[in-house]
Amino acid sequence: MSEIMLTPDSRPLGKSGLMVSPIAWGMWRFGHSTANEGRALIEAAFSAGVTLFDTADIYGFNGTGGFGDAESLLGRIFAETPGLRERMVLATKGGITPPVPYDSSAAYLSAALDASLRRLNVEQVDLYQIHRPDILAHPQEVARALEDMVTSGKVRAVGVSNYTVAQTEALASLLSIALASHQPEFSPLELEPITGGLLDLAMARDIAILAWSPLGGGRIGDPQDERSRKVAAALDSVAAEAGVDRAAAAYSWVMAHPARAIPIVGTQNAERIAAIGDAFKPRWTRKAWYDVLIASRGERLP
Predict the structure, then answer these.
(1) Which DSSP letter does residue 92 get?
(2) Phi/psi at 185 (5° precision)
(3) How many CA atoms lie within 13 A of 285 on its CB side?
């Protein structure tokens, strides 16, 4: 029976011209580290083959404060470690504005980008994504704002996060540049990108999928209900054969889809970061991959 083979080779980030690792490292809890701790985690990610690093201006926010903390910490590390920035593909996001909650007006996005650049101590980010869709922003205005970011030289490529398929299509149709990426929640427990057509759109338009919460918000590692336990069992059968843990099997299940989604690993533990490469060890037959899908659906496919 044929198997789906995964490799650690770099791949294009959509049509952006950027080459990235097949697994990214995310910084949503990064602002709570010290500079030395943060630098050690970044070096661990590099050692594990990661080149794509994902942050956002909202990372570090705890409901009352901390907005920009993850970017600020990374900016301090860049200032203290010359050459570190050049080793990574740096992605950040903006558009969440507590307690509004969202603003994708051209004026706000321009100001948010400049604020991110100041916190990060850089003149350019490789990828800038709108974090969540602002329903009150016309996609034409958003498109012009993103194009201006690239024209200014402050951003190399643009993308979106948490957009619906229709919102993604509307924005892409109004852009004169390629939409490089889409960052949805996607895991063996979150199938909307499959069932809702987002992965099909990504393949049709050559948009990179950056999958956040690929471990189902911790539910895959610590299943608390029948559905998550069945998914965990289906993953465990593949993990055991490959000699890896369940997390590695979950990452590889996400990557095995032909959309070639890039899971964003969120752990802030250096040992678990070092194990990122285990995600390339499982070998998925179609039956094994569909067994996980069926366990998550809770019913057989028609």
Answers:
(1) E
(2) -75, 130
(3) 9
Closest among 190, 238, 243 to 214, alpha carbons compared: 190
59, 102, 128, 251: which one is catalytic? 59
- Measured CA to CA, the distance from residue 264 to residue 287 in angstroms comes to 25
Locate tokens 């189902």: which residue? 216
Residue (of 107, 129, 37, 27) closest to 71 by Cα position:
27
Taking only the tens of pLDDT, the chain with its 302 residues reads 578 989 999 999 999 999 999 999 999 988 888 999 999 999 999 999 999 999 999 999 887 789 999 999 999 999 999 999 999 999 999 999 999 999 999 999 999 999 999 999 999 999 999 999 999 999 999 999 999 999 999 999 999 999 999 999 999 999 999 999 999 999 999 999 999 999 999 999 999 999 999 999 999 999 999 999 999 999 999 999 999 999 999 999 999 999 999 999 999 999 999 999 999 999 999 999 999 999 999 999 99
d(CA 18, CA 20): 6
Is 102 an active-site residue? no
Residues forming beta bridges with residue 93, ordered by sequence position: 129
Q: Residue 173 carries which side chain, given as an amino acid letter?
A: S
108 DSSP assignment: H
- Total-model pTM: 0.96
DSSP SS3 for 83 = coil
Type of residue found at 111: A
User: What CA–CA distance (Å, rounded) separates 67 from 56?
Assistant: 9
Q: CA 20, CA 208: separation in Å to the nearest integer?
A: 10
Phi-psi region of 156 (alpha: psi -120 to 50; beta: other; left: phi over 0): alpha
CA 213, 219, 221, 226 dihedral sign is negative
Contact, 88 vs 52, CB < 8 A? yes
Closest CA to 122 of 95, 96, 147, 88: 88
Kindly report the CA angle at 76 between 275 and 64, in degrees rounded to 5? Answer: 90
